[in-house]
Amino acid sequence: MADQLSYAFITPAALRKGRAGGILSRLISRSGLELYTGRVFAPSAKTLAELASTLSGQAKTATYLQALPAGSQGLVLVLKGEDAAAKVASIVGNDSSMSGRGETLRDTFGDLVESTQEGGKVVYFEPGVIAPATAAEAAVGLKLLASASDAEGGILDASTSFSAPTEKTLVLIKPDNFAFPNIRPGGVIDLFARAGLALVGFKPFHLSVAQGEEFYGPVLDFLEEKLPDGRAQWESIIAFMSGKRPSECTPEEKVLPGSQPCVALIYQGPNAVAKIREALGSTNPANAAHGTIRKEFGTTIMINGAHASDSVENVARETGIIRLEENDFKTKIAAAL
To answer: CATH second-level architecture of 3-154?
Structure first.
């Protein structure tokens, strides 16, 4: 069977409450699918209504989408692989699978309260995550989201949800978390939720060797000064992140997307840089505090789970290098469909 695309829409409430990591963990580990792309969206009322109309057999969900305030920020994850639509639908669940004991994502991360009187009238409904039932529904929904992705998605702003001045910071979930479909990428996001920040940007990507050279350029002089094999160590970092050492590449090969999957995240909130660095932990996992990403997921100074910018200035520099503002959500969906 040929590869399919499907999607999961993590609702604004679930995203705000830090449930995105747990949802992503189960989607990847239970399905075995590739995290193909993703994007934070603040959909318009028109897009919400049109998306609702694509979901057959999910009347509660359609009503929920139509009632969402326009501009509410949610996260769309796109999964790719054999029988993707059926796998994602089974893992996510639907309007009929929210009264079990955690079998589906909706059981765990959604809420359904029905009155014991008035014929079981719905008192409160929050699905947590939404998915299409079939490949045909997925294709229609993805084309709709792709067409809205420039105007209604990208690196968004959540400053009005905080009472203090905010800043943004960059996180890269490193390739060691993607060796096989597992809970680690979602687990990293889950631990970052302790910072109490808004997740306003999300982009899977493959770092090129040229981007790696620019990204890690500032540490080359330090490594060459401190280590006899400093340049070799520097090339090893780039090879870990992109898949190839700079000295092994032609100029033409350097600019091609690398072979190693990464995910870039943008968090926003008061003191975001410091809070994310605290949640990340020490560069050396052996010295990292318990409960930090690097203690939980790191193994060495290089293979340590994630990277986080260390200053507002570096957020701008590093975000520019990986071209996080570019919208490849639309082009990836168009290419696959």
So the answer is: 2-Layer Sandwich (3.30)
